[in-house]
Amino acid sequence: MNPDATTDAVVNGQPLAVTSFAEWRDAARALLQAGVPPEAVSWGRPGGEDLFSGAPAPAGPDHNAGNPLQTTHSARPPAPRLPRSLMEMLQTAACYRDPDRWAFLYRVVWRWTQGEHDVQSPADPDGARLHGMVKAVRREEHDMHAYIRFRERPVEAGAPRFVAWFEPRHDVLPQVAEHFVARMGKTSWMIATPEASVLWDGASLHHTGPLMSSAADLDDAGEALWLTYYRSIFNPARVNAQLMQSHIPSRFWKNLPEGAIVPSMVSQAELGARKIGQVQTVGRRSGATIPITPEAAQPDREQPSKIDECRRCELWQFATQGVGGEGPKRAPIMVVGEQPGDQEDLAGKPFVGPAGKLLDRVFAQAEVDRQSVYLTNAVKHFKWEPRGKRRLHKTPVQREIEACHYWLEKELAAVKPKVIVAMGATALKSVLRRATVTLKDTLGKPIRHDGAWVVTIYHPSYVLRVPDEAAKQEAFSLMVKGLKLAQELIERPDVPEPE
């Protein structure tokens, strides 16, 4: 753009015709060199007028016929330099569809050159608007990447193999085209929008005007196969229409192939398919619907035979190995802890770390031979969170306890202990299958459960964590008393059950 023509247009009150960021940048550079403030500039488009078109040139000594804008180009000062971060924001914001965008961007640049560098900050009103425009444009780029659907066209000489239609809210087609160039190789394609189109012939991009009017101009022989697959993976028992609408805005659905069948599938789910969750032939069977628990509704699946093969919850992904129980096959006492610790996870054996050493002291004080006891945990994989270079214990949640109860049940069935010693709340909840049971209400009180006695004591790790020495000794003493009670229950099985 000719700088003299730019400044002449400002002096004569003519709107500056700008169609691209490059043209605006050249015009803005010339205006800044001439010292023209934003309020003295009228921006427009070829063949049309914007909000400021036709406004008379500002009067006054600075903008009349004797204006210094008419000085020669060589007499102008050098163009100001802007930081790269601001230029990148301006270039992105230029894609935002707003009739006032060129005037606004020039006001931002003008303020920056006047020393108002906070114009780039979100705390500034203009800065907040600039950041909002950038965010909206980038979001539109992301949505266009995600929701464009290419349809394969019949092979024709010179025609693109794949064609897509999209209706963007902002002028992001050039950037999106570069994205697909990098991902579709030498395959030819075209993206059409209501305002413009871009074609890739496998070697170069071609930008043109609009070539289509809607997605109805597209057809795809393979689309029926895709819709068949989509119907097959649709699960009416889990459909959530509100969640689908929040993830994919409604303006995209009309141009997605699956958008034509989703409403009917959602309606079918609401009319009864969700309750059945199976094929329509099952739904047509006579008889009453009997509600059952989620566990009973699960299909029969082959269960893992080894702990290291277990995928019943996600803890296996982060553990070194599964840690099973250890002890005699017919031990009279089974001691159940919470989960393996860091050292147990590495060694593959229960209670070999600091908690295991403290437990050995408890066994010695209670005069119980550790070799006669079956030791295990309610959860078989180590749950942890990173803390620097260390792996710190993290308490399992109820669904993980429930998932691992499968292994505890197998151990209880094989060992058949007369007394189960639950160390801590997690072990107690797993043994009794009750999520609301508390440790303080059961300490020192044996409970009869499934033909065995259940005795509750503190977990060794709790004793290690107690900072007060007196409380530590009391907790240790309660553990000893609990193991002695377990021994008594074996020798005196006629101990009455507490009321």
Q: How do you describe this structure in short?
A:
The chain is of the alpha/beta class and 499 residues long. The protein is built from 18 helices and 14 strands.
How would you describe this protein?
- The longest helix has 23 residues, at 125-147.
- A hairpin with a 4-residue loop joins β6 and β7.
- By secondary structure, this protein is α/β, with parallel strands linked by helices.
- Mean pLDDT is 82; it is low at 46-74.
- A five-stranded mixed beta sheet has the order 3-4-5-6-7, covered by helices on one side.
- It has four domains: 3-140, no CATH class; 148-217, no CATH class; 223-278, no CATH class; 307-491, Uracil-DNA glycosylase-like domain (Uracil-DNA Glycosylase, subunit E), CATH 3.40.470.
- The protein is built from 18 helices and 14 strands.
- The protein is elongated.
Write the CATH fold name of the largest domain. Uracil-DNA Glycosylase, subunit E
Number of domains: 4
Q: What is the total tally of β strands?
A: 14
SSE-based structural type: alpha/beta
Segments where pLDDT lies below 50 for 5+ residues? 46-74
Query: Mind telling me which CATH architecture of the largest domain this is?
Result: 3-Layer(aba) Sandwich
Average pLDDT metric: 82
Helicity range: 40-55%
Determine Rg (CA atoms, Å): 37 Å
CATH homologous superfamily heading of the largest domain:
Uracil-DNA glycosylase-like domain
H/I helix tally: 18
**In which order are the strands of the major sheet placed?**
3-4-5-6-7
Report the top-level CATH class of the largest domain. Alpha Beta
Largest sheet: 5 strands, mixed
Distance between the termini: 95 Å
Strand percentage lies at: 5-15%
